[in-house]
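Recap from last week: sequence in, structure out.
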Amino acid sequence: MRLIRAGLLLSAALLPAPLLAQAAAPQAAPNTATSTASVAPLNFTERTLPNGLRVYALRDTSTPNVSVQVWYDVGSKDDPKGRSGFAHMFEHLMFKATRNLMPEQMDRLTEDVGGYNNASTNDDYTNYFEVVPANHLQRLLFAEADRMASLVVEPVSFASERDVVKEELRQRTLAQPYGKLFSIYYPEVSYTAHPYARPGIGSLEELQSAGIDDVRAFHATYYRPDNAVLVVSGNFDPAQLDRWVDQYFAPIAKPGYPIPRVTVAEPARTAPVTRTVYEANTPLPAVLMSWHVPADRDPDIAALSVLNAVLATGESSRLYESLVYRDQIAQSAETFFDTKQGTGNLVAYAILAGGKTVAQGEAALMREIARLRDAPVSAAELAEAKNQILTGAIRARETAEGKASTLASSVIIDGDPRAADRQLAAIQRVTAADVQRVARRYLNAAQAATIRYLPAEQKPANAAADPVTIAPTVQVAALKAPADIPVFTPAPEGQRIQPPAPAAPVAADLPRPVETRLANGLRVITVERHDLPLVTASLVATGGAATDPARAAGASSLSAALMTKGTATRSATEIARAVESLGGAIESDASRDGASVDLTVKSDQIDPAMTILADVAQHPAYAPEEIERARAQAIDGITVAYKNPAQLAGLVAGRAVFGDRPYGTPLEGTPASLKALTRQDLTAAYARTWAPSRSALILVGDITPAKAQALAQRQFGGWTVPTPGASAAAAAEAGFPAPRVIVVDMPGAGQAGVVVARPAIARADPRYYPLAVANTVLGGGFSSRLNQEIRIKRGLAYGAGSSLSAGRRPGAIAARTQTKNETAAEVVSLIAAEMQRMGQAPVPPSELDTRKAVLVGNFGRTVETTDGIAGLIGGYVVQALPLTELGRYTAEVQGVDPAAVQSAAAALLDPKAASIVVVGDAKQFLEPLRKAYPKVEVVPAASLDLDRATLTK
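Predicted structure tokens:
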């Protein structure tokens, strides 16, 4: 099991409640006991076919879905010599044609029926996974077997997918701040012998050098039944499943030649390694330190998992408390526990705060690691870490897909399907002495590899950066192609075997909310789910950033971030420790139209957790020192976002579409607006949103309506706010500004971010469902028109899509992608053409049905988890929709016809009303863009001003 750091963070984002209410509860002593809730072991059957395929089945009749996963025991470490990134590129090719399947037909079999599919490449494995309605199980088994047995590799799709992978490399590694630090430099500096040293994404040069024969040899060598694991999880008949597996997978032959295995052992690091690099597009300095840890199956992994949680899980963790909160050295300080089949790494890193140096960050990280070696962790820290890991494990098993992934990872990484359960049991037995022992064994100063990652502009004159490359001692083998590799071609039309027909649908069990109301007006909404010992609580209110004055952009967002940073009786640290000691996480957030405070805990901890949530919601302190700390962190976060072409393009597009209207200013503010905010601005933002009469408490999971009502009454029954005076009539909103074409020039940007956006409608508009379906045809999912044109047909981007944001006020619809700079103008023209086409002709019924299935399927998967249900209901509360929307959603989507889609698209997707924003290296695309749009505005990135609708200083 990969117990990588869970995102149990408690920092930014949902708003609480009004001023004076009930008295705060007395402080509780630190929790030093682990929860009594437990994780039920995975209940599965297993068998191995004569050809070596290992088959695991986890039955769950409570879901209408089924997850099919095939994991191959081949990953980036197995990339052949001179072919780094090859396993990852091959992952892409597996979605092309087989003897019986057309290219991208896997999407037809999944996305088009309301499911989805994806894949990932890890150092140790490549996995392919789908979730579909349970009646489509047989079709997926047929398809997975067909691409295992008869993949077709031909020049056109090979070249196209190679270009897509290049764009993925540019997007994730070259254009994104710190992309090279994590994707390239970290693995290269971590290993001197093992091929884990090679970045999984590969290099542009080696990707270009790969040929079709290489691909065919790779498939024949590794994609075989005796190197694979099949996991089926969800609603199925076990006997029928066995028959289908025997029908489709058993005939696949086991090759007679052996599977090449990496047997290289990474030598222990006995002297520290340090590299200093200077990179463009680095908004803040960073430092990363890593230490070798043993293979995931090693007994010490349990203690190291607990150590990792103590170090960096949540805001009560040691790294957050010291580097981010107390000393304010870092904008963020985190870890990832990168365990593998072989030698892995514990990685700690800090993105430094503005004005801080890498020397300060490095010294602080080393100081916290030394504390783990020098003294045992406290009993409270030990219990908290175990509870957090336990809660994370429960949440990972909420869905059929989550259970399947947990089991498959155990098989591939640890060689034992029960490894995840055994590791959880071992974690409960870990002592403070165990944590100190593994810290001393693995985390010594001499065992560290350090990367100091600095902005290019900080490089001293005549100074040379340290080279970071793959060590020449790394051992990589060339791929020896098997003899007589079969070359598959698509079957002639009359001979192609079609996927079997779907079976009868399995009815979904939709959530059934039960609503009551307290005397003060607070709505209490409960959804019972007793299959796991888990409860999500969400307190939601209406108001949000749309109520911020024009001069106070970011007030509601910063006010929300401060909700968990202290109350009248609890400090920020005490809040974090109290919630995280229960194994939970508390988050606060503001949206355009509302705000919320959310937490998820094991059900036996909901009572004490609700005490903290209620205090945070009703008694935020807004202490001056907390305001300054949160302000600095927010400014640093925005500074990082401004260096990402895609993020910046989205912010500029929002300003261009809305101008000075309420949705126009950046939700989180700008550096200038945040610096100007006063405490009064923040308390006023709180008061504009939080009152019991405009709030709802949503409780989902292992709780009854009666208990929910009692909890709500006890914690919120005394919540009152001063009666507001009569408010002045709201000023009439200005009209939408004229569309603009804007280029933000970011010299040296690794990619261009492209957004085409225009005004849309409010959520209550009767055209909402037709427009939602139209948007999904345009850019919703892998099979959408934008992705087909930009990625699949032309390989110009890693992905392209569109989104509809419909609020209490009219929102926007936006199409977006990232592409290499020189093709930005071409991508703009493709997007505009597809938007125009939507209103010119009806969508064919067959295409429309598939896009409606995407919406219905996404909705169905959302209601599989407690936080998904809470989020849906919270959205309905904020948008003033009735709870009956839960039951109406599917019928409303399915009732949309081609005429309604065309009508909505003609009115609301016409690109003539859209603003176009391109952020990138302008010299590479400005000339062709100007030919199409002579009135294009060019704004140097350094001159951009998002506080003004004009966008210039």
